[in-house]
Write a structure and sequence with these properties.
Shape: elongated
Largest sheet: none
CATH architecture of the largest domain: Orthogonal Bundle
CATH class of the largest domain: Mainly Alpha
Helix content: over 70%
Protein name: TetR family transcriptional regulator
Organism: Saccharopolyspora erythraea (Streptomyces erythraeus)
Distance between the termini: 77 Å
Radius of gyration: 21 Å
Structural class: mainly alpha
Number of helices: 9
Number of strands: 0
Keywords: DNA-binding, Transcription, Transcription regulation
InterPro entries: DNA-bd_HTH_TetR-type_CS, Homeodomain-like_sf, HTH-type_TetR-like_transc_reg, HTH_TetR, Tet_transcr_reg_TetR-rel_C_sf
């Protein structure tokens, strides 16, 4: 009879490696929040994780790969968080308002991490000096909102306005909540959610009055 000890051992090693990567990512977020992106070296991250710099290098090619993982995984987790709420809505207006509300809810529930993520987005640059997460990612977020607005206009739920301009305004307002947490980590994100959903509910109506 074949022993399964080898496969079990491999699964155990994979679990340990994943736990180590999570430890490193958490330490990276803590380091960025404390020191800022520029000073968040692998040595500083290793110090807060209680490991050697070489352990980080074993799991990540360098700071750039680690930063990439932090941002991508944060946004993927956010999408998974919001999707069920958006799918439950039956109107474009419902989807729009839930999109705003749940974006801000996700920010509020991850207020420590969002400070680090925002710092990465503003400072992570490629070799040529351009922002690593540049206009393409931003445009995708705006276009996703603009598409909701277009569908609502086609169905007669929204008034006559430029969906891209309105979408940009909505995304900027959501990003403003992240900025508010930089200034005040205890900011009332639920209040922001209520105010911004009410604001854009009025702004997108056929009769904004």
């Amino acid at each position: 009879m074949r022993s399964d000890s080898g496969s079990v051992g491999q699964e155990g090693l994979s679990f340990i490696a994943e736990a180590r990567r999570e430890q490193i990512k958490k330490a990276a977020i803590d380091t960025i929040v404390e020191l800022g992106y520029a000073k968040a070296s692998l040595a500083q991250i290793a110090k807060r994780a209680g490991i050697s710099k070489g352990v980080i290098s074993y799991h990540f090619a360098g700071k750039d790969e680690l930063m990439e993982k932090l941002v991508v995984e944060f946004y993927v987790a956010g999408a998974h968080f919001m999707l069920p709420h958006l799918e439950a809505e039956t109107t474009a207006r419902g989807v729009l308002l839930r999109y705003i509300e749940k974006n801000i809810s996700y920010i509020g529930e991850n207020r420590h991490a969002i400070v680090a993520i925002s710092d990465i987005l503003l400072n992570f640059r490629d070799a040529d000096g351009s922002l690593h997460f540049g206009h393409d990612g931003r445009n995708e977020l705006v276009e996703a909102v603009a598409q909701i607005l277009r569908e609502g206009q086609e169905k007669g739920e929204f008034g006559d306005f430029d969906p891209v301009v309105m979408g940009s305004s909505i995304r900027a307002s959501i990003d403003m909540v992240s900025a508010a947490l930089h200034a005040d980590p205890d900011a009332d994100t639920a209040h922001y959610a209520r105010e911004l959903t009410a604001l854009f509910d009025r702004a997108t109506r056929k009769d904004p009055s």
